[in-house]
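Notes to self after the Tuesday call (sharing in case useful).
The group wants a holo model before anyone commits to mutagenesis around the pocket. I volunteered. Ligand is zinc ion. Logging inputs and output together so the record is complete.
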Amino acid sequence: MRAVVFGVTVPGFLLARSVGRVSRSATHGVLSGLRLRDWPEPVLPGPDWVKLSVLYGGICGSDLGNLSFTSSPLMEPFGSFPAVLGHEIVARVDEVGSAVTRVRPGDRVAVDPMLSCGVRGFTGTEVCGSCAVGRHSTCGNAGEEGRTLVDGTPLARGLTIGYHADLPGGWGERMIAQESQLFPGDEAIDDRVAALIEPLSIGMHAVLH
Ligand SMILES: [Zn+2]
Ligand SMILES: [Zn+2]
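Result:
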């Protein structure tokens, strides 16, 4: 599939950041970490996973900070690269694993991109304190490889889809997510508005909690 991919090395980051101070255009040209390229088609890593076709992927301020090298592109230790960017996502369900009950093929869903211990494949006493009380956005295992196997290898570390080497984000044609991350919504809501449910949810969380 085709995808917008961000990948940069530490030396590349330092060079682009230095040159970018002199010429902003440099960070959007040859030194940019951003490329439109082919990316492996994602496959379901388990029976409770879902394959999605992306309808819209928003551009977050954190994406702009990474692309302009004004924030750390590596987001250590909570990202893995290269990564298909995009974590503000509305998508259509293509394929569901055998254990999926929350969505069906054809459903339009908003995606919670944050990765929980459950997504990583941790159960029982391995579940971190944050996930145990439903606060998976601060998952204490974000810096660890997961038990979930993606193409036979452990799920890479990472806090969120969109900055994750194994889980392509909303700037690609297709992606995968565990069903717990998916929220079917009112089809009357315009796709472009539905893509903003993720940032809206962050604002609502700040106000309500
Ligand atoms: Zn964001
Ligand atoms: Zn956790």
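Two things stood out.
Strands lie at 2-6, 34-38, 49-57, 83-84, 89-96, 108-111, 149-150, 153-154, 174-178, 182-184.
The first strand starts at residue 2 and ends at 6.
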